[in-house]
From TrEMBL:
PANTHER family reported for this sequence: CELL FATE DETERMINING PROTEIN MAB21-RELATED, CYCLIC GMP-AMP SYNTHASE
Gene3D superfamilies the record matches: 1.10.1410.40, 3.30.460.90
Coiled coil: none
Lineage per the UniProt record: Eukaryota, Metazoa, Chordata, Craniata, Vertebrata
Protein's UniProt name: Cyclic GMP-AMP synthase
Pfam families: Mab-21, Mab-21_C
Domain of life according to the entry: Eukaryota
Mab-21-like HhH/H2TH-like domain mapped to chain residues: 240-344
GO biological process, one term: cellular response to exogenous dsRNA
Gene Ontology, cellular component aspect: cytosol; nucleus; site of double-strand break
GO molecular function, one term: chromatin binding
Domain Mab-21-like nucleotidyltransferase, first and last residues per copy: 49-224
Amino acid sequence: MQQVLKRLRLRSEEISAAARAVNALVEQLQRALQASEFCGASVLRSGSYYERVKISAPNEFDVMFKMELPRIQLEEYSDSGAFYYVKFKRNPKGNPLSKFVEDEVLSASGVLAKFRKIIKDEIEKIKKIVMQRKVPGSPAVTLVIKEPKEISVDIILALESRSSWPPKTLEGLPVGEWLGRKVRTKLRQQPFYLVPKHAKERQSFQEETWRLSFSHIEKDILNNHGNSKSCCETDGEKCCRKDCLKLMKYLLEQLKKKFEKREELSKFCSYHVKTAFLHLCVKYPRDSFWKPEDLHRCFDDCVGFFLDRLKEEELKHFFIPEVNLFSPEYINKRSKTFLEKQIEEERNNGFPIFSEF
């Protein structure tokens, strides 16, 4: 496992080159947004690179442009827990997003279309950057930097709300025994975000909904992950939590690569791995469980826990427990059974896939 982790470690010169290219792009987009309806937008970096669990190469970045909203009212969509209509309690003329309000609802599709157009117009001025085709239901505008190396950057607009988190998050974020009840209270005092992600409605999408996002909280947790406050700090004891997460992400990544021509694994993503991992950290909160010398056993526990989630067809959203990420409405049983079989085969044979590709 240590040899695999060495291969996955990012090289500092690659990180520096990628970060320079992404930062230059983000600065240019921010200048363009300042001259638009999104003039109040500021940058919120999230995703695996900023959580320091990126593997293989610094070739994928997630960047949020956040806009703080005045007083808003959320109306839950179809008892979903995760998707909401956004309404303004007041609609002052000074609100730059007021032009996107239709029948009192802030139009997610209208906001996203305008946001996408501004970015498209701006990157047409830049050589060696292309925009990917829009993915139905996705909140991201995906740009690909072609040189010096190909880097994919997901740009997402997020609405920031500083009001109380929605009621269905009340039992979520179960980190009290792991990080401490005070830490949980402090995390819940942070703002939450809404991204223009459309809820699935049979074979189509409800295009006016916004989805809750807690990626900033996930980043905080992963960067301050110890039961003791000094875990993995310069002078503190080390743990293997992040190494386990990297190996789990790599396992799924390799399986998706191996079976890329089959559709069974298309719905699975690193967010499923991360969510299961966070639940396992809650189950085993003590740093003593995650000693670096116990990496093999800890990784096997991660694999076993993920297999259990697949078998039981239940993976609770870490912040919204009513949402089951492995429910049939999101992923069919055939796909879950297929992934379960492939992981078990790898586990029984010492993970030969780690040496492939």
